[in-house]
Amino acid sequence: MKGVVVYDSVFGNTGQVASVIAEELEKAGHQVVLVNLRQSRNVPMDGDFLFVGSPTRIAKMTGKSKRFVKRLDAKAWGARPVAVFDTHSPYPEDPKEREKSLKWIEPGAAGRLTKLATERGLNVRSPPLRCVVKDMKGPLAEGQLEKAREYARQFAASLGM
Length: 161
Hints:
Strands 1, 2, 3, 4, 5 and 6 form a six-stranded parallel sheet that branches. This protein is of the alpha/beta class. Helices cover 41% and strands 20% of the residues. The chain has helices at 13-27, 63-71, 74-77, 95-105, 108-119, 144-158, and strands spanning 2-7, 31-36, 49-55, 81-88, 123-124, 129-132.
C-alpha cells in the first residue's frame, strides 16, 4: 500500500516523529511519501492512507496543518484511514501547575486536527498519537520516538498487509 505522511514542524520535534512513522511504515512493506509542509506545497494526494502531524502551539495546531486538512478532498479520502499526531509540552508534576497548563496542552493539535478531519468526513483513527517534548523547543522526551514507532507498527498491522 502507499501512504503519505504530512507534517508541520517548528523546532524539528514533530519532524522527527514523522520520520520515524514513515520509517516504520516502510519497514512494514508500505511505500511512503514524507512531506514537510514548510518545505513543500506539493503534496501527493494519491495514497491508501494518510498521517497528518503538527506541533501543539498555544493549544492549537499550526496554520499550515489546519489549511492542509481543510483542503483535503473529503470524497477522495473519506474511506481511507487517516492518523493524526502531535508534539506537545510536558504535563507539570505539581497538581496546581498541571491544572493551569492543561488549557495549553489539551486537546492540543492532535485533538483539534482529529475534530476538524472528522467534521470533514474523514476516517480518523483513534486515539491520535501524542508525543511529549521536554520544553517548548524540545528535544523530545525520553521514549517518545519508540512510542511513535509502536504507533506506526500498530497502524500498519491494522491495514492487514
